[in-house]
Design brief:
The chain has one domain. Helix content is 55%, strand content 0%. α6 packs across α18. The longest helix has 21 residues. The radius of gyration is 21 Å and the shape is globular. 41% of the residues are buried. The structure holds protoporphyrin IX containing FE. Protoporphyrin IX containing FE binds next to α7, α8, α9 and α11.
């Protein structure tokens, strides 16, 4: 047999039914002419990881230095905090190099994004929580990686750490010296590098993966589309109910995510330059790979049950139906979310009128207003309280995989 590439072996495997088609990444055909870099090249992001970070973190793990790093990071919270003393010198140098905004970051746009996030906060909490969060469980690679990594065994703590990322991104000073987001992103980048070293050592993970190393640049882009691109499409869709989103705000919201992707180690040549380019990338990179997995079904149930800890003034059936409403019944069926058709009727009739009243387009308060308001505010509180009693659960670099 001639020198078959990994992709052609996988494609052949799919044709023979040895692996599922959804596990096979398509050849990358998205030209980087539409990226931040603007160069017309076609590098494959499925085979790009994080060369600046991965070898460094692998050696820290192998030398047993990560617990001390996590301890030192307790005082490394704000973007303006000095690099903690006592870190291994190579890590201190690395942090000095990466813990900052890219040269192309535009502070005026980031400020506009911060104002937009504040004005849209209720919708954002809902869409990130019930939309993006649950969508992540039908992204097969992500679901399996999250399930089989250390945090997969304690989803409450993991969700709290993810809330920290979202919370830090949404504060008015997220990208300034007094904010936390740049530092939180750097810790997340280091966490992803640790997962790249650890997961390949898990026999359970190796048994379900199609790719030798997790969390490539392509995988991170897919997750971005389940977050930023998905939320953008819903906000634009809800304009028909009176949501006001200006072109400048759309652009600023994209810019915020572009910077966030850079901080996670995604190369500029893969980061979409416009929403049109982002939606195009999402259409062929995210949409076709969405699929249920055993791990994802389990994670979705765990995540949806986490919100039971707060009183949202609604039933479990209503909450599951709302997830179906914002994500599609196709995804709801994959995740075996129970049906509650009465709640569905209430949502379909009531949610548009809730937005219209909230946005001042309708003078008449709908009868279901207080129910939706209680629900949306409850989700916001859950988010603001970080899913726990603490308001800020620090991100720590894992040192092991899910036991068992
Ligand atoms: C950890 C965010 C993409 C898999 C984390 C953490 C954050 C985060 C904040 C630290 C909190 C925690 O430990 O749970 C993001 C963002 C992404 C992204 C914003 C893209 C925009 C991905 C992708 C994968 C992935 C594509 C896999 C395909 C993981 C895993 C962990 C992790 C396995 C470690 C959980 C553990 O501690 O065991 N991510 N992530 N992430 N992420 Fe991501």
């Amino acid at each position: 047999m001639e020198n078959l590439s990994r992709r052609s072996v996988l494609t052949l495997g799919a044709a023979l039914g040895l692996v599922t088609v959804t596990d096979v990444p398509k050849a990358w055909a998205w030209s980087s002419a539409n990226s931040i870099a603007g160069t017309n090249t076609v590098t494959d992001p499925w085979d790009v990881w994080d060369d600046d970070t991965d070898p460094l973190v692998a050696s820290l793990l192998d030398n047993g230095q990560i617990p001390a790093v996590n301890n030192a990071f307790k005082t490394f919270i704000k973007n303006g905090d000095p690099v903690p003393s006592g870190l291994p010198p190579a890590l201190a140098t690395y942090i000095g190099q990466v813990n900052k905004l890219p040269s192309w970051a535009d502070q005026a746009k980031l400020d506009r994004a911060a104002q937009f996030n504040k004005r849209m906060s209720m919708y954002l909490f809902l869409l990130y929580g019930l939309g993006s969060g649950i969508m992540s469980t039908v992204i097969p690679r992500e679901a399996r990686n999250v399930y089989w990594s250390e945090g997969g065994a304690d989803m409450k703590s993991r969700a709290a750490k993810t809330f920290t990322y979202g919370y830090d991104l949404n504060t008015p000073d997220a990208f300034k010296a007094t904010g936390n987001f740049i530092t939180t992103s750097t810790k997340t980048r280091l966490t992803h590098a640790a997962v790249r070293h650890l997961l390949p050592q898990s026999a359970a993970w190796r048994g379900v993966t199609d790719h030798p190393i997790p969390i490539s640049n392509g995988d991170i882009l897919i997750t971005f589309h389940s977050l930023g691109t998905y939320v953008h499409s819903k906000l634009v869709e809800w304009r028909r109910y009176g949501l006001r989103v200006s072109a400048a705000e759309e652009e600023a919201y994209l810019h915020m995510w572009q910077v966030a992707l850079h901080l996670l180690g995604v190369r500029d040549e893969f980061i979409p330059a416009t929403w049109a380019a982002a939606h195009e990338q999402s259409q062929y990179a995210l949409t076709p790979i969405l699929a249920p997995t055993r791990e994802g079904i389990d994670l979705a149930d765990t995540l949806l049950n986490l919100t039971s800890s707060v009183d949202l003034g609604i039933t479990k059936g209503f909450q599951r139906e709302f997830a179906r409403y914002v994500l599609s019944d196709r995804i709801g069926n994959w995740l075996r979310l129970p049906r509650d058709l009465i709640s569905r009727g209430v949502i379909e009739a009531g949610w548009p009128t809730y937005i219209m009243f909230r946005e001042g387009l309708s003078p008449v308060m709908p009868g279901t207003f207080s129910m939706f308001d209680h629900f949306v505010r409850g989700l916001a509180m859950l988010f603001l309280n970080n899913g726990t009693s603490s308001s800020h659960t620090p991100i720590t670099i894992p040192t092991m995989n899910r036991p068992g």
